[in-house]
Structures are given as structure tokens and as C-alpha cells.
């Protein structure tokens, strides 16, 4: 159906407001565009005559075996894109042998999703700590293999496409994991995003390192901190008990003016050392992007938007198979027999834009 992993965006047929909800970023969308430009600017010098044959893409990510150095990023309200929503994408991830990260704002209960495939749980920090603890306990009881706390959303970034569309969730798409019965996300607000109004009510903008340390104290499963760009914050996350960090600017949907995630990656890896697992999120659009991220220093990547487009087409399994094929092709062309060889590739930033 698609010739390249990035083709699903063109194939997806969605209402204009839903399409903008996925495609858009915050503010003037500078960081959104910067993610793509920065990945395009990374060049990798291939090796030759290594007798590679068939590259080995298998790895272990925070104790979870994976056939690819990839996890499905946490993404909200997936029933906007397909009636089966999270269940269809999670099943595809399970078939592909990679972790699926369940969003706090999933449109189906986390227990149903975790029953479909090996999963991690992504946590947004809520104003009600009792509700936070309940989500952690539910995720643990459901067998989630890791907890990924998102730290870059004290408030939702001002996403102007959603504002201009007065974006509102349809009645049958809900935040299924929250006991909050508020109607903000379903109430049309002229010149405002109903989803942003809901998160402003639910999320705690005063989330702090002290809270993160408390979170570490109440769970024994691996803890990832997602939304790190500054090496100082990476070190603070480790001090608070994190087992991994995810270098991410939330796909350009939060602070507009942040660096591209791939540009921030190297300094975070240098600060933490090569033995500390670091993941990259934001901007990955194909197998060559995955190889670039690993060559710059990531241990694995999260993939988001392209999988929502594929979900809208009803083909997330096909999309993940295609992404794996692209990665293996890229490794073969770069002369890499395994992921350790990818990490050893030489990279640089190309100052000339590709026309």
C-alpha cells in the first residue's frame, strides 16, 4: 500500500480538524520544522566490505526484548483515527516484537491495551496525586513493563491549528483511563482547543523533581523520563531515580523554540555516559532516521505521528514491517551487521540544506 514508511500521511483520509490535531505543532511550529531539518542535516559515513549479509536489529530496551530498536510512542485518543484505536496499533506492535507505550490519555482502558501486547505506560502528572497513584498501580497490575513519565507538559503548548479549528473530541472518544468525568474536551469553545482546556484542568503545572522522586519511591518497574533536552535535567532525572531518559521536544508540540531532539541528543549522552540508556523521540519518519539517531548516540527511538497516519489507513502492521525493512536496508548500505556497528558510525552535520 505504501512505498515508504512516511507515505501514510498522504494515504490517510481524516477530517480536517483531526488531521491538524496530528500534524500540527505549537506556536509558529518552528520546533516542529526544526526536527525534520535537523535529521535531514545529519550525515552518516557508511562502512564497506564488512560481509554483513543480513543485519541483526534485535535489542533489549529497559529489560524488554525487542526485534527493532524502536517503541511506539505514547499518543492520545487513537480512536480518532480508527474504531479499534489503541488495540489495533498495540496488536501491530506486538506482532512486530516492539514495545507499545500506552498514553494516560488513551481512548481505551489501559488494561485492555496491555492485554493485547507487551506494553509500557506513559504518565502525565495529574493534580490529584491519589489518581496518579491509582494509574501507577493499574499499570503495574496490568503487567506494563516500564513507566514513562512525561515532564514537558506543565501546560499544553498553544497549538494554533487546534485553536483556529476550535478542536473538540467527538462524544465517543474519551480519556478512558481518567475517573474525571469533566466535559471540557467535548465542549466546543469558539477560538480555543477543548483538549487544551481539559488538560489545563487535569494536569498539575507545578510538577517538580520532588514529585519525580516520590514517583520513583512507589514503583519498582523501570522508570523513563520523557521530555529531556538539557544535560542538567538528564543528570537530575538520574538523581531522582530514573532508569532511562527520552530526549524529546514532544514532536514540536510544546515549547516552540526548543532545539531539535537530534541536536540535543549528543550532549545528553555525553553527560550520562554510554552505559546509561537514552531514547530519542520527535521527528523519526523512516528507517534511515532510526539509523541516524542510533549513530548519534540513542539506544532506541520512539515513533509517533507516522503510525497514527498508518492507523487511519488501517495498516499499522504493514507500516511497522516497512519501517523494519527500511532500517535493515539502511544498516546493510551503511555496512552494519548489528546495532553496535551502527553506534560506531561516524556522523556530522551537513550545513547545506537539501533542495
UniProtKB/TrEMBL annotation:
Record: residues binding glyoxylate: 124, 159, 250, 253
Keywords assigned by UniProt, alphabetized: Flavoprotein, FMN, Oxidoreductase
N-terminal signal peptide: none
Pfam families assigned to the protein according to its UniProt record, in alphabetical order: FMN_dh
Entry keyword annotation includes Flavoprotein: yes
FMN hydroxy acid dehydrogenase domain segment(s): 1-352
Entry similarity comment: Belongs to the FMN-dependent alpha-hydroxy acid dehydrogenase family.
Protein name as catalogued: Alpha-hydroxy-acid oxidizing protein
Species of origin: Kribbella antibiotica
